[in-house]
Records
---
Amino acid sequence: MANAAALLFLVAAFVCHMRTGDAQRFCGKSAVTFSVRKTENVVGGQPEYVVTIGTSCSCPMENVRVWCDGLEHSAVPLDVSKVEVQDGMCVLKKPVAKGSPVVFTYSSVVPVNFRVFNAAPRC
């Protein structure tokens, strides 16, 4: 009986490890997605944009850092509870989860070219 319980535990641990391993392998920087939409608002002579940062990963993505050069000149104050700009890099203040994207607005003469620098799955 003890051998059967030990075997069941090992199989369950193996399956759990395999699922986590698969998620980590497919949940890299490329799993982070961006959507930028121009609104009808103009702030300080600059068009306003809404950016949505999401993920296709089943695990929440943490430590998300995104190149966002130019965002520091936004006439729209950024929501510091969601994003902070450091030397042309946006640092997200909370994880990005599938179905729960980080959404914020900014203004710029031209849309910012968002590119992922870092993101790590938390599985």
Note: The chain has one helix and seven strands.
---
Amino acid sequence: MASAAYSFRGLGFCVVLILVCFVAVSESQRPPRACPEFCYANLGYMTCPETRNQHLTPVCNCCMAPAAGCRIYNNTGGLLCTAT
């Protein structure tokens, strides 16, 4: 009887392991985000929530921003866009 309990535990462990691997593989196979290839004129700076709104070197447009909530400003301080 004890061997049956061990085989069920082993089977349960294998099922859990397979599910974890499936989730990990499906997460890594998400298609990349397609961003338009244009740059705003007069880029000034970028801020992101993760850097506590420190002025950063801006990327070309908000689609290319490193995280949601990043904002790109022009060289006069006007907001150009906010990353989603």
Note: Confidence is low (pLDDT under 50) at residues 19-28.
---
Amino acid sequence: MAVSLLANDVSDLCIGKPAVRALPLSAAAGDLAATVRKGPRAACIAVGPARGAVVGRAGLADVLCLLCSSPDALARPAAALARPVSALLPKDGAGEVRRVDPRSSVLEALDEILSGAQVLAVPLRNGGRKKQLAGVVGVTSDFCWLTQEDLVRYFLNSISLFYHVAARSVSSLGLVRPDFLSVRPDEAALSAVPLIRRAIASETAVAVVSADGHLVGEISTAHLAACDETAAAAIATLSAADLMAYIDYFGSPPEHILRAIKTGLKAKGLDAMLELMEDETMTSFSLSSSSSDEDTGRAYLRRPSSGSFGRRSTEEPVVCSPASSLVAVMVQALAHRVSYLWVLDEEDDCRLAGIVTFADILRVFREQLLTCVHWIFQLEVRKCHRGCCNRQPSVREGTDDSSECHVSTVQKNVCAVPYCGCTRC
């Protein structure tokens, strides 16, 4: 039964997860960028003065937004990179990071995500992995991330328990949101920086949509996080469509894209940014010349592309239709490691109709779990009123006589039902 999923703790979803790397709030943004580049393309966390106080999460995409946040930051990138990590964290509470106890229920973690938390920080319990990581420089074994993707995968593994909604279309479930972030292909990429910040907080992307409503591509925060600080020069000078092409070729961009960026930087008088870009380009060239790619005679491309300026082939946005089933959308998103899917309306010449996000998908599962719990609650109350014993049905601590069922009770007793205590019940 679906309610049995609530018997698991949050720690059960964190088995095998690596510890996150941490930086103090006083660390420089440039230090964060250097730390992230040394390991997997994952965000770092910022911790407060007290050990175990999680303040927020930041990555290379946040650094790029900082560099493009003002004309002064673009003109003096070194000064911008010297700013503390705290400057990267949103001031409006968006993209909040919350700490949860490893013994918390799945439903409690679900409520934290759906109430505004972007990601959950779960303390790692003492064990072998913590001892292994204890001596690694720049790594703290205190926390691991629990994301929306982890929760969606958790429910997908038990999707047969939700067969009555799994086969329903995303449109019938009301999951297609028409309010998505978008820009025109010919708009300046710099104008999209506020939208990129919002996309980081919501774990989505900025759609690049043509004037007739067709999806041209996307500016993905995950793809930006695979770049380095020099991508700020591309954001400052290119259009949204051209920025997509730059990201496609990052690591070895075509000469005409580099010329366009350098010309734009000179026209805007951003000499310091131009110098930073040229220094990084020479460093990347010297590193690549000593790699095995030199032996093959091929330039390294982070993601191959067709070469059409502003259009993508191998990294097209992940899309679905309004008629796609819930389970199909979940499988598709998890397979592509994205937390959203763009919805194209086949009845409207495949124009962009909206977006389906993990957050909305998780709301469906939460409703199903609560419905199941409340149904069992009422069923057991009726059983106790059939006269199987003389005792009145007692309600466990944390619940009342209504159909509402407290989260803590769900964790202590899977069914969260008020058994009267007799053997017949």
Note: The first strand starts at residue 22 and ends at 24.
---
Amino acid sequence: MGSNEVWNLENGITNGSSHEPRLVKTAHSLSSSSLRRKSELAIGLDDVRPLLLKRILINFQEVILGTKICPLFLAIPFAIVAQSYGFGRPWIFVLSLLGLAPLAERVSFLTECKRFAVGGLLNATCGNATELIIAIFALYQRKIDVVKYSLLGSILSNLLLVLGTSLLCGGLANLSKEQRFDRNSADVNVLLLSLGVLCHALPLLSQQSGNAGTSADSSILLLSRASSIVLLVAYMTYLFFQLKTHRQLFESQEDDENDEDEKAVVGFGSSFAWLVGMTVVIALLSEYIVGTIEDASITWGIPVSFLSIILLPIVGNAAEHAGAIIFAFKNKLDISLGVALGSATQISIFVVPLCVVVGWILQVDMDLSLSTLETGSLTISVVIVAFALQDGSSHYMKGAVLLFAYIVISVCFLVLQSPTNLGNLNGSGYESSVGFSAA
């Protein structure tokens, strides 16, 4: 048995076996794959000795250099150096954001192999790992509003920006063709998003109808925790529905030239090591972002709500979003909708309630309550998307309307200060130092 065969067996890769690892063809994996380079492992590596060095180089080439946005990895050491030597904190914020973009795409890549502990489940639950890690660090520092802002922004950007841009670009690129998509999976996601909206709206409605005070706050917190448990149960049901009973609704197919089985070059052991390492780096950059977002807000004169709701989601998931738009150009709307709606659904019914439970464990009063402005933006966004997708067809005007809605909401958060617990951000006096006046 050759050295290569030994290495393949160690990593769980067997040739000519029915158990050969394959990449799971979901909407998320296919959208990320559009930004990957074709692996050319033979170039320059055949004559490398010893075997350990060859393994390292192959893994480095596949994991680090295997994406078209690999130059953004350079932002990571610059962010660490800037933090270590006390450079301008806004620069640390920007460099950390840029470094998160390739890391988020690579985490998605590493969780696609089926042999890697049921890759479909991992890909579904790790698809928004970046948002979850940032939220946990913000919770640990008791910056509750940063958590709410960033997660709300992720939902809005997926529903309006990503989906809107995909429908607009796909419609303009395919004017002579009728663009259609499978309504079944879209309907499931819209239903779950509506459930998430209900759980966010109930605390606000109870605030408006009840008496303010300590007892009301404790009741809202209790309601949020109970609703979060229900949402987590709904998410587990959704995973069973997506990965087991109705899997055919969510599986995506590529063109014939890409239909050949794609072997997983990175095996179980290497994938696990890379995933752990990248998670640590994501956690480090997330800590930098949470610690510097207020300084960046003060320096630039931009509200934290705008940075968290608009900027963080756009940069953090840029690779996945770009992939969705690319597939819309190719008239593959099912993949684009799977990315946009799937990510929004996952954040709404998994990441948000999980943060409430984590806050419960950390004794942080994280709840589902949003301001009237934030709740209204979320509710209307879900309603607009539901109307846009109700007939199973698309044209560029639908995408344009979604984009217009996102632009209006972005401007709203730029010029208005959200009234939600601004004291949680940076203590008293923060309101007067940041943001534009609405007067």
Note: The longest strand covers residues 179-180.
